[in-house]
Amino acid sequence: MRLWLTRWLRARGWRRLPMLLKLPWWSWLALLLILVMLPICALNVAVAWVGHSSIFPLSPFFLGYKIDALKAYAWHRPRCVFFADQPITAPLLARAEREQHLPCGLMGAIVKVESGGASHRISRAGAMGPMQLIPPTARALGVSDPFDPEQSVEGAARYLHTQFARFHSIRLAAAAYNAGPGAIVGRRVPHNGQTEIYVDRVMRALVFERHARCAPPRRSAPVSRSRRLQLGALAGGADEATASDGGADGSNTSAPGGGCGCGVSDGAPGAAPLLLGLGLMLAAACPRPGRRGRRRASVRRRGWAAFACEEGNGTGGGSPGAERGTV
Question: Which CATH number belongs to the domain containing residue 108 in this structure?
């Protein structure tokens, strides 16, 4: 057969071509591999360079998706020269979650795990854009430009809404987003070496997103009854001390109701701030008393308040309020 083909080629003027027929079979195999693998290698290198991803140069998987992704990128890239892409912001994610009735923080967790917010990302499987939509899913969702952040987020939100309405679980919806709804069997996350890791990362990112965007403002702790009584006693003592400062000669005058008379000396600060500061220090340092010890603590506090009033006045004599407070 080879001899007949050689004579036929020589009869038609192909004198050098028959020399190739004398090459060994492994040479033909190497030539065939080079001709086949060279375009595959060029495609993988282009996807890795454009999409900022790591791909084995001789990988023969998802070639059709990679070609479609490069076509979409070639159509999108000229617009980026004149119009910058809209960044993925918290209001954009919140609007998509609100329109599609998704749990708060889910879109942010998916974006963080899928692409980290990179708009021009292309994965080793040919998924495109910040939400990593594969070409068939993007066409089914009506997303004309998967590299546009707004279109990508809206399309992914519609897809997640469908999966969440079907499975009624965040974990299963995330697993369906990664592996497809057909991979969910028996309402369990498929264990294929990738999806279970993906779901765990999404759930961890969801916790941070909820703390960052969805956590309500912290409310102050309610004031207990004993604390209210302490603050009321301090405020009452301060009012009595202020009312007793009406003496014209600066002498101590007894306040109505039996409060301590705290006078104000010339050039010295009033006793009311001193009394309030000492009361707050005592309330912070001393443990909260029980029901039986509330009256005893109140009596002790009034005694300290009277002592503070005497020190603030600069007088060594006692006052009616001090005597009543130490009973």
Answer: 1.10.530.10
In a domain, 253, yes or no: no
- From the list 97, 99, 114, 150, the catalytic residue is 114
Selection from 252, 268, 265, 273 nearest residue 320 by Cα: 252
- Co-location of 142 and 235 in the same domain: no
Is residue 204 domain-shared with residue 58, that is, in the same domain?
Answer: yes
Distance CA 305, CA 144 (A): 76
pTM of the shown model? 0.60
User: Mean pLDDT, the chain, as a whole number?
Assistant: 76
12 in any annotated domain: no
Q: Which domain holds residue 303?
A: 227-243+259-325
Helices (H) and strands (E) counted in the chain, each on its own, are: 13, 0
Per-residue pLDDT reduced to its tens digit, 21-34: 566 777 778 888 88
Residue 15 lies in a domain: no
Overall residue count recorded for the chain in this entry: 327
- The last residue of one of the domains, among 156, 189, 212, is 212
User: Mean pLDDT, to the nearest integer, of 248-261?
Assistant: 42
For 31, 36, 121, 229, the CA distances from 44, given in Å and listed in that order, are: 20, 13, 14, 75
Residue 114 falls in the annotated catalytic set:
yes
Q: Whole-angstrom Cα distance, residue 184 to residue 13?
A: 64
Tally of structural domains, the chain? 2
What average pLDDT does the segment 181-197 reach? 90
Under 8 Å between Cβ of 127 and 133: yes
pLDDT in tens, 118-162: 999 999 999 999 999 999 999 999 999 999 999 999 999 999 999
Is 104 domain-assigned?
yes
Cα-based distances in Å from 326 to 36, 251, 293: 101, 23, 16
User: How many CB atoms neighbour CB 84 within 10 A?
Assistant: 9
Please give the distance of CA 46 from its chain centroid, rounded to a whole number.
33
